[in-house]
User: Which sequence fits this backbone?
């Protein structure tokens, strides 16, 4: 019997000699085995330290359907397709609104970003309540802008005050997109609207929006110009801007990038 225990103890010692904790290197007769340490990678966070958000009363009536299903509020309902367009600022002839949202302030440093891609949004046929054809009035209605993943994304500053010093209401928010409105109506009929895709909405802002929307949308989150609202999910955010419901060209220097010189030729107003 004692020989059996001797054999068991011997085998156990040999096993311990061959196995080690993760991260150790073992040498046996010039043979090397590396046992890597396994660690769970840190999950990305959209939280913005020190951020806080408030609501503001919305002018009635509320939107006529759930915002998540509304093609004017949730851009995912319409959808979009990549198109070929000049990835530079363009200048259109005509007047301009000096209070219009300035898209440079999507970014903390107020830069003119690299335009990474162009997209065209689908029209919505309100008769059949279904998707129509792609827009064609402008070369692009949704513009990709290069980002560093995780950088903060902000409210485009404007000359408008919708009450309490705020620039915008949040008409729709989800974990990866947000819709901002530069008036206090719960629709896109009047004033400017900005859609931002591929942004990780700050969790506190998203929770506030979801609670306010569930409570009947009498109040919705209100944000200041240049206030951080989330973080870039990847190397690009997509941005669309509208006036009185109409989708416009986000590359327009005269309207949305007034502090930058034009890069391309003058285009006639359309």
Assistant:
């Amino acid at each position: 019997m004692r020989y059996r225990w001797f054999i068991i103890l011997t085998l156990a010692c040999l096993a311990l000699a061959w196995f080690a904790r993760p991260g150790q290197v073992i040498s046996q007769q010039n043979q090397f085995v590396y046992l890597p340490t396994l660690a769970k990678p840190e999950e990305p966070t959209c939280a913005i330290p020190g951020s806080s958000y408030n609501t503001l009363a919305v002018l009635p009536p509320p939107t006529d359907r759930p915002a998540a299903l509304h093609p004017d509020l949730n851009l995912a309902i319409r959808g979009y397709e990549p198109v070929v367009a000049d990835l530079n600022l363009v200048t259109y002839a005509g007047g301009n609104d000096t209070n219009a949202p300035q898209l440079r302030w999507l970014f903390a440093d107020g830069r003119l970003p690299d335009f990474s891609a162009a997209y065209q949004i689908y029209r919505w046929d309100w008769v059949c309540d279904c998707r129509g054809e792609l827009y064609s009035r402008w070369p692009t209605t949704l513009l990709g802008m290069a980002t560093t993943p995780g950088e903060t994304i902000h409210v485009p500053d404007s000359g408008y005050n919708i009450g309490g010093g705020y620039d915008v209401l949040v008409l729709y928010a989800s974990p990866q997109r947000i819709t901002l409105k530069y008036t206090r109506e719960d629709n896109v009929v009047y004033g400017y609207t900005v859609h931002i895709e591929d942004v990780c909405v700050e969790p506190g802002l998203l929770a506030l929006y979801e609670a306010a929307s569930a409570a009947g949308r009498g109040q919705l989150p209100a944000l200041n110009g240049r206030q951080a609202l989330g973080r870039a999910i990847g190397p690009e955010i997509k941005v669309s801007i509208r006036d009185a419901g109409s989708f416009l060209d986000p590359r327009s220097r005269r309207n949305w990038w007034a502090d930058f010189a034009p890069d391309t030729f003058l285009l006639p107003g359309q």
